[in-house]
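Ticket reopened. Same input as before:
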Amino acid sequence: MNLRNSIDRPTLIASSFIVVILLAGTLYTIVTQGTATFIEPTYLLQQIKIAAFLGIVAAGMMMVILLGHIDLSVPWTIAATAMLATAVGGAWAVPVGLAVGLAVGLANGLGVAFLRVPAMIFTLGVNAVLRGLMVMLTGGFAPQSNATPLMVWLATGHPLGIANSVIVWVLISAALVFMLTRTPLGRYIYATGNREAATYLSGINTRLVLIGGFVICSLSASLSGLLIAGYTSKAFQAMGDAYLLPAIAAVVVGGTNILGGQGRYTGTVVGTILIVLLQSVLSVAQMPEAGRQVIYGLVIIVMLLVYGRSSTLRG
Amino acid sequence: MPTPALRPCSSPDRDAMTDAPAPFLSLAGVSKRYGGVRALANVDFTCRQGSIHAVLGENGAGKSTLIKIIAGVVQPDEGSITLDRRTVAFPTPQAANEAGIVCIFQELSLMPDLSVADNIGITAPPRRFGLIDRRAQRRRAEELLARVGCEDINPLMHVRQLPLSRRQMVEIAKALGRNPKLLILDEATSALTAADVEKVYAILHGLRDAGLSLLYISHRMHEIEALADTASVFRNGQHIDTFAKGARTDEQIVQMMIGREWRNVYPPKPQRSAPPAPALELRDIGWENRLHGVSLSVGKGEIVGLGGLDGQGQRELLLALFGVLRGVSGETTVNGTRRRIGSPAQAKRAAVGMALIPEDRKTEGLMLPMSVRDNISIAALGAMTRGIVVDRAQEVQKIDAIVAKLKIKFGQLTDPVATLSGGNQQKVVIAKWLLTGARIVLLNDPTRGIDVGTKQEIYQLLRDLADAGTAILFYSTDYDELIGCCDRVLILYDGRVVRALEGSDITEANIIASSLNLTLNAADHAASATAR
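Engineering reply: fixed in the latest deploy. New output:
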């Protein structure tokens, strides 16, 4: 119990790195522009709002990574959800969007759990199929339909003083933490990710667990797609592309083992904030694009090296 | 190249066959330890040219270690090897290969996705301008396949497409392609069909007449009789005896293979007047070509052992029962009701109440990085919930009780199970299943790699469970254990139950004889029934 209550190492490292990023960025802006943009509350709140979209995708992605798999169909799950939801419009927009996520998750889960196709290949294929279907549907042009008022409200409304998208992120996070720590399913997800054979031989239906993980991942991507469409008030083809690698990076930087079985949800939240702040600071600091990419990549590699080293020492 | 060692040539000691030509290979005073386990102790061993030399012994007698040392796979801790009157050392398998020592191992060494020709030529492919000469390689493969009488195998076929028996022939062709002077066959005929066995016998006799030295390891006594001209018996890492074919009776050989003192570490067996009511009955269980018409029954409160040599279908039988294997034929009856068990989840449900302690606790029994708590409660977690939430109080309470009962030793419940000793890890696996309230317990060699103290605790635990009415089906590679623990022992051979031993018939001699599918002539065997 006491282990669970203490903050684990990756979360601690990632948190301190957030502070480092903010301080370094502030130092840079004070020297170059004479302002301290990065530690102003409005800036930080804005970043949290943006982080919600990535955070929801990363939350789902974490379930799949905990299982020892990966979901590369996230970009077009987001885009397909947004496009179909805006195309249908009206009261059915949100249910249709989530139905897309459910369908993609079931397809991915069945492919990995029953056909035993490696998730990396299968979900990449599903991503391509979704893209093809959407191009067929729209005839290759950007869809003209706009987000419904409900989607816009979910993404940008702030009746409680905080953006609704952040509240959605918090609710999803609370539900996943509850699921991971308190329910048998959560225990089975960790167990399956650690050693599927041993879990199966313990009389657990690991196929259902796998399908469950993929469904949660795709549903989260769909939800994020609805919010992004609401935020930008329309759907467009490449809207999901910017979320796949950052979501994986957020999960892994948050301390989840990319091979599955280990990781805590708080780490994913911290990892998401780290990734969003890093991207933002690098762009606000007006660093050239090439340099931004180099630093972004290096940060992720260095953090993983630090974790990798510590885990081999412990093992 | 074999590196000559610095010490002077020791004169190899002679065995019973002193009139024979000088030994080709001889080992003097060779010992090998793995950690605390002594695999070979001060072994002297020789084999001659123009001879087929059989090596006999129980599981764990040191046969494999002997071969690995000769083949350069492992290095001896002490002792010297003399090959063709020169003292040699083989630091790598390649060094042994270059000296003309070639092995055909039980586990096939072929790459399934390469062609037959590629596999045969893999160590030294013919080259032309620095590239592999595929045409020459194919011709060579054809020649070698013809030598083993397998002209029908197309050298361009992928090994994956060949049935197991053909693969074994390719393996033999590959070995011949390396021009061996000493050929070692480790259970190399276990997958052959009867027609191929005849061919292999002819090839091996031909090789012997051509002056090769052959070491032949097999568990099949009749093969040894048909092939070998000399035999050596190993037991507990020691070389017991070497004799010419026909110089010892089967009884004497079996006696040599046992010869171990029996320690009283087992709880007493209950005396029964009537057979117990059956809890688990199997009829005609078959699976692929590994299980053939296995019928047996395990009574409530009975411990039934599965014996026989490794790989005669015991593991497959337990997995088939537990719903792990696909395409199992036959009927399973639990407490008088016929059940179809298609997965471990179905085997676990209350109506069946089955548990399996798997063979490899590290990969099949435990999630090593997860905590002791998570590992113990995983199988019974579904029954420890309030709504959809795990009832942690109930979980901890049940775990505490089972931990106390099995005397599992660890730091904290949250420690990774990987930090526990082997014996305590195995107790965690058993605890996991006891929490499910299983009434039929299948065990797959549960005491492997476990210290003696924990073994005794497990034997006592099994007897306690049985006394409480649990039916136990127990596969062990340790004959001692089968004799000490089991009310009945069924011997499997080639996927069939060939013998059922009961009461005083459960002796090491009987188990070994039945394992080799022999019938001994001693009087006390007449009473034992043959279950088929």
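The two ends of chain A are 21 Å apart (CA to CA). Residues 206-232 of chain A form the longest helix (27 residues). Please confirm and we'll close it.
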